[in-house]
UniProtKB/TrEMBL annotation:
Gene source species: Circinella minor
Residues of the PCI domain: 178-347
Family that this chain belongs to: Belongs to the proteasome subunit S11 family.
GO biological process, one term: ubiquitin-dependent protein catabolic process
Source taxonomy: Eukaryota, Fungi, Fungi incertae sedis, Mucoromycota, Mucoromycotina
InterPro entries assigned to the protein according to its UniProt record, in alphabetical order: PCI_dom, PSD13_N, PSMD13, Rpn9_C, WH_DNA-bd_sf
Name of the protein in question: PCI domain-containing protein
Source species, domain of life: Eukaryota
Length: 386
């Protein structure tokens, strides 16, 4: 019966009728569709369809064209192109649930061993619409399933990675899982050309990344975000203070942190987390204090740490223990002599000021090496003479 219906469907008649409904500037596409379809030039027809779907005026025409025309020859289409076309059409469904139902049909068609990568794209985009319906459990299942599938590939098309990380980030944002959002959002940005994003989207993504970096419990290195061009979109906006706050945290600058703290009232999440942020800046200050020291000068008295972090000496031991438990530093605490011996500090991505500080350290080390070389040269003759 299904085969008989396919035979009976009058493609030229359908395209002619749809052509009459289309705006004048789009009508020529239908003539092209019919010509390419009759000549069985499937690749060229696919490209023409994609071009048509990219026209904003085509939005109300996409669903009927997909359901009535494209399904007639969908087995001739590259599956990534099929899903890409379907995703554009799904965005034009009248109801969100209709978008889910529409994509569920596509998911079934690409759920094969040979098209598992494309299956990920369709499943994640369906999850995007489910997220809009607050179907969090279904979205998490999709993320977990797709993550396992992607692990089996050496690589897939960038658009598939971009979809996976974008929707994952949307989910983690909705669930207020800041560290996971931070990771997924940065990976998404690595899959796209930031210049292709609208100014509004750039600001929105930079803002969300900044908030997640500050509130993520396990995020103590902001270097990757600070070096990313997306953060510059906050410059000269009402959110520029947030960019400055990130730099203050990254350098452990408590003075600047305190100066910017009044802005927390603009962001309820930061205001609610002010105590946690104060603890975090103290840890960042400790890391920076250790990092500034040379490797042979990392036995630090409690009193110096207290001065750096603006804590009382009695609070320093707890701070250091927290840093050790978070694996931000390694070393030991000497309670008797009230000092900390740091043997390792977490590697960091440095901003320009920190790089300049490291340059000065290297120059100092170089001068020390020269002094030792001069000393050995001066004393060497006496040693060998003896």
């Amino acid at each position: 019966m299904a085969q008989q219906m396919e035979i009976d469907f009058d493609v030229p008649k359908f395209l002619h009728e749809e052509r009459q409904k289309a705006p004048a500037q789009l009508q020529h596409y239908y003539t092209t569709f019919e010509d390419l379809y009759e000549r069985k030039l499937w690749h060229q027809l696919t490209q023409s369809i994609l071009e048509f779907f990219n026209q904003s005026d085509s939005a109300p025409l996409q669903i009927p064209l997909f359901r009535q025309f494209i399904t007639e020859w969908e087995n001739k289409i590259n599956k990534l192109s099929l899903v890409s076309i379907a995703l554009k059409a799904a965005n034009n469904c009248s109801e969100i649930q209709d978008s889910v139902n529409f994509l569920n049909d596509i998911i079934t068609k690409v759920d094969t061993d040979d098209t598992k990568d494309v299956y990920v794209l369709a499943l994640m985009e369906a999850a995007h619409f489910k997220l809009l319906l607050n179907q969090y459990d279904d979205v998490k299942k999709a993320i977990d399933e797709c993550d396992k599938i992607l692990e089996q590939f050496d690589s897939v098309e960038t658009v598939i990675y971009a979809s996976f990380y974008r929707v994952s980030a949307e989910y983690y944002k909705a669930k207020a899982e800041y560290a996971q959002y931070y990771k997924s959002a940065l990976l998404y940005l690595a899959c796209v050309n930031v210049d292709d994003l609208s100014p509004e989207e750039k600001v929105g993504r930079a803002y969300d990344l900044a908030i997640s970096a500050l509130l993520g419990e396990m995020i103590y290195n902001f270097g990757e975000l600070l070096m990313h061009p997306i953060l510059d979109s906050l410059s000269n906006t009402e959110h520029e203070w947030l960019r400055s706050l990130l730099f203050a945290f990254n350098s452990g600058d408590i003075g600047k942190f305190e100066a910017l703290a009044p802005h927390f009232s603009k962001q309820p999440l930061l205001q609610q987390s002010s105590e946690a942020l104060s603890r975090k800046i103290c840890l960042m200050s400790l890391i920076e204090a250790v990092f500034r020291r040379s490797s042979d000068n990392r036995v630090i008295p409690f009193s110096e740490i207290a001065a750096e972090t603006r804590l009382s000496v009695d609070e320093v031991e707890h701070l250091v223990m927290k840093a050790l438990s978070l694996k931000l530093i390694r070393g030991s605490i000497d309670q008797v002599d009230q000092q900390v011996n740091v043997t390792w500090v977490q590697p960091r991505v440095l901003d320009k000021e920190q790089i300049d500080g490291m340059r000065r350290q290297i120059e100092e080390w170089n001068n020390q090496v020269k002094k030792i070389g001069t000393f050995v040269g001066d004393q060497g003759g006496e040693v060998f003479a003896q």
